[in-house]
Amino acid sequence: MSALLDHLPEFWQGLVVTLQMTAASFAGAAVVGLVIVAMRVGPVPVLRAVATVYVETLQNLPLLVLLVLAVFGLPEIGLKAGLTTTAIVVIALYEGAYIAEALRSGVNAISAGQGEAARALGLTFGQSLRHVVLPQALRTVVQPIGNIFIALTMNTSLAAAVGVVELTAAANRVNLLEAQPIPIFVGAGLAYAAIAACAGFVTGRLERRLAVAR
Amino acid sequence: MIRVRGLNKWFGDHHVLHDVDLDVARGEVVVVIGPSGSGKSTLCRCLNRLEAADSGEVLVDGVPVPAEGRALARLRADVGMVFQNFNLFQHKTVLENVMLAPMKVRGVSRAEAERTAHELLARVGIAEQAGKQPARLSGGQQQRAAIARALAMRPKVMLFDEPTSALDPEMVGEVLDVMTGLAADGMTMVVVTHEMGFARRAADRVVFMDGGRIVETGEPNAFFDSPRTDRARDFLAKVLTH
Ligand SMILES: Nc1ncnc2c1ncn2[C@@H]1O[C@H](COP(=O)(O)OP(=O)(O)O)[C@@H](O)[C@H]1O
Ligand SMILES: [Mg+2]
């Protein structure tokens, strides 16, 4: 127990990095997901194909491989960015594919008549997506997106493997000094569980607030 | 107002519209009737290009309907459409349903859109439903809201695809009354319907479709009392005996 308490500042620092990475990469993933789903359900065949390939590719590669590739490969081709920034971008691109798929299932759950009615009124495809289809699609996928958020939080720990000192890496460092893995990693695990619990609470509330009468 | 020439449409190898020609004059009310599967909805949906025809042309107010993009959206803004299943936006109130397109497409201010929406809801007789979600309304009220939503764009033409077919019988009248009122006010209308009473009362012309072709067209009383083709006679015999 004292192993945890003696190193609270390190844990705290790691937790802050984890939270920053989670927030930033989730925001990025949301943007990526929206763009990809718009391409995927849109009328332009080329964009649809690009979006499909994007989703299929990223869903079939391990995140760790992508992280290692980006951290060690990008400098080779002259692209240099901070470790944490690189990890955030990679996680955003990766989780964006999952968000796009969740949104697409939401779009498919909305009757085609909604988009047709919007377009028949003169809304462009983008406007009908933005004002009519996506707001309804989002309501049906609050829970899956909450689950993606939780998975994304856990996935930030993979950044430890490429040298980002987030919560898991911080716990690992403390353990190298104290050699008390059980309290140290249980402590870190509880912090992740707390984040997941918050996410679950928020999605539950959101789902009830956004429920639409049908 | 609408001019259709040589329209053909296939779904796969199913030839759904055969060389359809149709003219609708300004202020004219054309009722399209025919057996199920004869291509009435497809024709209607080709007029605002919700369905793209394979050949032929559609002109609205002298302008060929654009293939896609903003130009197509602009044309659709001038062509109102009312669907069998209402298709009201489920996540918005009735009032917001009516306000959305004028604000987003025409750039009308919120205050003006709201004023117009209240006027139109009063005109179709559901002023007191403005703040409700569509699912809380009866079918007849939902369809009247959908008509108000289309009218809010001040369309040059209104298309109706079986607007009363999804309604309980006691609600058919309230929707047909609104449509009759529109026709009397001089709106150009294309109406796909099985309501022969409405066709007699409100139509300037009846178009009878069968097997993807326009088989017969004529002034309503002449058409109903003495159809010229066997197919129209058979169809009328079936629907009018029920
Ligand atoms: N999206 C579609 N895909 C394939 N076939 C269709 C589609 N829409 C309509 N059809 C077919 O086209 C024919 C005409 O349909 P429709 O225009 O809906 O007829 P109506 O409105 O007169 O009942 C029918 O045989 C129908 O099955
Ligand atoms: Mg039909």
From TrEMBL, chain A:
Residue stretches making up the ABC transmembrane type-1 domain: 15-203
Keywords from the UniProt entry: Amino-acid transport, Cell membrane, Membrane, Transmembrane, Transmembrane helix, Transport
Topology versus the membrane: Multi-pass membrane protein
Single biological process term from Gene Ontology: amino acid transport
PROSITE patterns: ABC_TM1 (PS50928)
Keyword Cell division: no
Name of this protein: Amino acid ABC transporter permease
Species, as recorded: Microbispora hainanensis
From TrEMBL, chain B:
ATP-binding is among the record's keywords: yes
SUPFAM superfamilies per UniProt: P-loop containing nucleoside triphosphate hydrolases
EC numbers on record: 7.4.2.1
Pfam family, one: ABC_tran
Signal peptide: none
An example molecular function term from Gene Ontology annotations: ATP binding
Domain ABC transporter as annotated: residue spans: 2-236
Catalytic activity: a polar amino acid(out) + ATP + H2O = a polar amino acid(in) + ADP + phosphate + H(+)
Topological relation to the membrane, as annotated: Peripheral membrane protein
First-listed, main subcellular location of the protein, grouped into a coarse class: membrane
CDD domains hit by this protein: ABC_HisP_GlnQ (cd03262)
Keywords: Amino-acid transport, ATP-binding, Cell membrane, Membrane, Nucleotide-binding, Transport
Name of the molecule in the record: ABC-type polar-amino-acid transporter
Family stated for the protein in its record: Belongs to the ABC transporter superfamily.
InterPro entries named among the record's database cross-references: AAA+_ATPase, ABC_ATPase_HisP-typ, ABC_transporter-like_ATP-bd, ABC_transporter-like_CS, MetN_ABC_transporter-like, P-loop_NTPase
Gene Ontology cellular component list: plasma membrane
Naturally occurring in which organism (per UniProt): Microbispora hainanensis
